Each structure stands twice: as structure tokens, then as C-alpha cells.
Amino acid sequence: MCKKTILILILILAMVFALISCDKLKGFDGKPAGSAAPSASAEGSKPPFLSPNVPTEQPPDATGSPTPTQEAEGSPPPTPTSTPAQTSDQARLAEQDDSSGEDKSQTSDTKESGVKKTMMTRLTYDQKTVYLTFDDGPSRAATPQILKTLSKYGVRATFFPIARDGLDDIYKQIIAEGHSLGNHSFSHNFKYLYQLDNIDDFRRDVIKMHDFMHARFQYEPQLFRYPGGTMGRPDDLMAMRREVISDLGYRYFDWNVSSYDDPNGKNLNSAEGIIRDVLSAVGNAHPAIILFHDAEINAATAAALDKLIPELKKQGYVFDTLDNFK
Predict the structure, then answer these.
(1) Is 214 a catalytic residue?
(2) Which pLDDT score is estimated for 111?
(3) Is 294:138 a contact under the CB 8 Å cutoff?
(4) Contact by Cβ (8 Å): 89, 150
(5) Which residues contact 236 (CB under 8 A, 6 or more apart)?
(6) At what angle do helices 299-314 and 143-152 cross, to 10 degrees?
(7) 178: Cβ contacts below 8 Å, ≥ 6 apart
(8) Which of 29, 73, 172, 292 is spaced 20 to 30 Å from 301 by Cα?
């Protein structure tokens, strides 16, 4: 009996020992010891930073390169690449007008100097841009006809007028029709403006023209064109004036295409000459900033535009104002 009891006890101890050894090989949840239990948020879900509808592995495209997965939250968007033909000059904002035949993609409303402008759209880089600019006006002889032609073709332009009395209605029409106004000085007097040892007169003249436009038309010009331009003038003379213009918050613009319609120009009285010379030069200017005038003597300029604008459109050009120049 004692031997039997001892045998039973030995069997019981062997069974207990076997059970204890088995438990040591398992965790409390029945999974192999040493394996980590998944978190509640991750269990059954995609890897982090991927939305539920994005596969964990993207199939390769036709070239064998993997297609991109969704960007991780908080990372910057990818920088768009440009083709060799793309230039910063050719990517522009141009007016959106139903009659212009332009591509109308991304649009937004803009207001400048209290004047509501037309809708604007960003151009693609391969579109050609022309900036029509008119100096030394306004005048009864030329400006109203120029405005009529611009309206006819749905084109906006940039005017650099000087101070003229009795023409407030024309200044206001320029603004109301969505064109841009720049500062071209009050006096347009070269001897007064370009004194080598006197910068104060230049500053006063520019401010006087600014105040003229602001007081009469509530317009704040942000563009400037030096009378006669900057080309060919001494560097030390212009360096001081550029500093004044910058301090006053202006951007200044010369031109790279001339119509030669100035008082001493060969095309002053020739609409055909204006059309010929502009069309022959515009293809080499990227973008093209074209110089015209709209003073009393510029009737030929007004006449030329009615043929010049449709020809430029036919060649694929679009039109913009210099305040949109980037």
C-alpha cells in the first residue's frame, strides 16, 4: 500500500511538473512568449500615414518605377518640375475675357486702389505675353480712341500719364475700364528731373504726381516709368533715382519693343510703320513690353492698334498689365 501511494504521488508530481513547464512556454493570452500584442488602433489597419483606401504597396508604373504613395501629413508638397522651355518671364497672370480666346483656368477676384479689376487667370508657361504701355497722355486726340479699341478686343493696358488739367474724365475712364496707371513724373522735364547734383527735385516731382492721382482719382500708383527711360543714362545719375523710387514703393519699367511714335520717332504719323516695326520686334522679346504714346500728336498710334491687336492675337499672344508682371 505504501509503495502504491508513493507511486501515485510520483505520478501526480510528474503531471504538475509537466503543466508548469507548458505554461512557461506561453504568455497569458495564449500566444507564444516574446511576441508583442498589436495596439488597438493598429490591429487590422494599414500601416501609419496611409489612408485606409491606399494599398500598402503601390504597383509599378509602365516604366517599372513605383507610383508615389500619399504624402505623410505635415510634409511639404512636392516641388513642381519645369521643362527646359519654361521661364519665369513666360508664366504670367493675364486677363480673363470672353472675347480674347485665352485659356481660362484658375481665376480670382482682385481689387487695387479701390477699383475692381477683371477676373485674372494664370497662364501656362508656353503662352506669349504682351504688355501694351502708353506714355505722356492722356489726350483728347488719342486716348479715347485707344480705349475704344482696347475695349473692342477685350485687352487691358498700362498707362503712364503725366499731370494734365481738364482731362479728369479720361483718367477716370482708364481706371474704370480696368487698365493700370503708373507714375511718369509730374513735369516730364528732363533738365529738372535729371540734374546730377540734385535728387530732391526728382523726389518732389514724383511725389507730386502721386498726390495728383491720389487726390483726384483715389488711385495709388505702384508702377513707375522714368521719362525717356533709363537706357543710356549715367549709372551714378540713375542709382540715386532708383533708390528714391524703391523708397517710395514703386517698381519701374522700361520697354524692349518700341513703336517709334514719339515726337522725334520715324512712325509718329505712320500707322503702317508702327504695325510693321512692332510685329518685326515682338518675336524677339520675352515677354514684350511695347512702348506707345497717347499724347495729342499720336493719332496714328490709335489707328494702328485696330490692326495690330488682332494680328498679335492671331499669332498667339495674350495681353496683360504691368502690375501683374512677376
Answers:
(1) no
(2) 36
(3) yes
(4) no
(5) 196
(6) 20
(7) 95, 115, 117, 118, 156
(8) 172
Closest of 197, 211, 147, 215 to residue 176, by C-alpha = 147
Contact 180, 120 (CB under 8 A): no
- pLDDT tens digits for range 158-217: 999 999 999 999 999 999 999 999 999 999 999 999 999 999 999 999 999 999 999 999
What is the grid cell recorded at 106?
484658375
**pLDDT per residue over 51-78, tens digit each?**
222 232 333 333 333 333 222 323 333 3
Segment (H or E) for 235:
helix 235-247
Domain ranges of the chain: 130-324
Q: Name every residue whose Cβ is closer than 8 Å to that of residue 37 and which is 6 or more positions away in sequence.
A: 29, 31
| Percent of the chain whose pLDDT exceeds 70 | 64
From the list 179, 188, 210, 293, the catalytic residue is: 293
Question: In one letter, which amino acid is 249?
Answer: G
Q: Mutual orientation of helices 200-217 and 168-176 as an angle, nearest 10°? A: 80
Q: Is 293 considered catalytic here?
A: yes
What is the rounded average pLDDT for all residues in the chain? 74
User: Is domain 130-324 classified as CATH 3.20.20.370?
Assistant: yes
CB 229 within 8 A of CB 254: yes
> How far is it, in rounded angstroms, from Cα 205 to Cα 121?
36
- Amino acid letter at 174? I
Q: What does the block give as the cell for 115?
A: 477699383
8 A C-beta contact, residue 132 and residue 182:
no
The answer, yes or no, to whether residue 294 has pLDDT greater than 60, is yes
The full length of the chain comes to 326
Average pLDDT rounded to a whole number, residues 243-260 = 98
